[in-house]
From TrEMBL:
Subcellular location: Mitochondrion membrane
Signal peptide: none
GO MF annotations in UniProt: monoatomic ion transmembrane transporter activity
GO CC terms, sorted: mitochondrial inner membrane
GO terms, biological process: serine import into mitochondrion
Family in the record: Belongs to the sideroflexin family.
Membrane topology: Multi-pass membrane protein
Keywords: Amino-acid transport, Membrane, Mitochondrion, Transmembrane, Transmembrane helix, Transport
PANTHER family in the cross-refs: SIDEROFLEXIN, SIDEROFLEXIN-1
Keyword Transport: yes
Domain of life: Eukaryota
Name of the molecule in the record: Uncharacterized protein
Length: 76
């Protein structure tokens, strides 16, 4: 944006400031969000002992073998 202001394009056409800013922001978000999701792992693990009591009971009822570690999707 600074380079466009220095060239005088946005000074001559002040109505273009908002569409240009929103377009640049949209492009950044379009590419930054997928890249950030790709850089960081989506799956994480936690010890069974650290789970909430309700989740522990639910897992104990559903499975015969109690896991030492459970995995979950962190999501966005």
């Amino acid at each position: 944006m600074n380079s466009l202001e220095k060239k005088g394009l946005l000074r001559r056409h002040p109505w273009m400031v908002l569409p240009t800013s929103l377009g640049a922001l949209g492009l950044c978000l379009t590419f930054a969000t997928p890249l950030a999701c790709a850089f960081f792992k989506q799956k994480a693990s936690i010890s069974f002992d650290q789970l909430e009591p309700e989740l522990k009971e639910s897992i104990k009822k559903q499975s015969k073998k109690i896991p030492t570690e459970v995995f979950f999707n962190k999501g966005l």
